[in-house]
Specification:
This protein has helices at about 105-110, 135-145, 155-170, 175-180, 190-195, 205-210, 215-225, 230-250, 255, 265-275; strands at about 5-10, 20-25, 30-35, 40-45, 50-65, 65-70, 75-80, 85-100, 125-130. The protein is of the alpha+beta class. The radius of gyration is 21 Å and the shape is globular.
Length: about 290
Amino acid sequence: MEALDIFIMPQQFKNQLETHELVELEGATILESCHDGQHEVKGTGYTTQHEILHVISGTCRLVIDGIAITLTDGQSILMPKQTILDYEKTGDPYQSILFFLNDEFILEFLQTHRFLDPWQKLINPYVVFQNNELLGAAFQSMRPYVKNASQTSKELFKVKTFEILLNLSQQAKALPSFLSDISKPSSIDLKLFMENMYIKKLSLRELAELSGRSLSGFKREFKELFGTSPFKWIKERRLLAARDLIVHMEKRPTEIYLEVGFEDYSHFSKAYKAHFGHLPSKTIRTV
């Protein structure tokens, strides 16, 4: 299995401000994304908050729970927190606007706007919205405020985001029920979570928080599931990923120790020898 680095959203967008304009509110993060067609933009992401993605121009291909979804100009998707997704963005340029909303923000929206129609239920764990004039206008009207964030009040951003949620609710009558369900406390499947997160340089407290658990609950469930401590499991999992890259991908040990989560080659080499009985440079390649 090839080692995989996962992009944590929205936190890691703060490191990419050259291609994103970002606004932070209490309970929400809004950003506009723009990429030219000269660079490949794809990877695996993890949403720590509920995400609305609206494609302005270009194409965004997603894979969620094995289901492929393609969004083009004017289409949108709402995904709950703790969603793991593969993404590929193409277009010259590719432009999108994204909203990351926490549970409290969603609940405030539901409490502020009373929905009288009977709530319906959704089959999929996400909602895709087709382009229409009113919804497109709602998203487009947010863009000048994002570009002039320093001159825009936080309250106005909240009102504009509520406006977009109302427009989405008009198109999908089941949305209020969906929002109510996803804003309840929940935790992601721990095995799936750790298989995607073991490469990241995260503390146990950060792993617990991202997985939707308390630190004590995380440690307890981890021991029950894996039969060992998080530290030992992560170390062994990284070493297995390193061996896989050396054996099957023809990569040199000096090329991959950072890729699998080690910060120092000497430490990586000693840990590898202690686990497999030989230095990484002595690993036999099969390709």
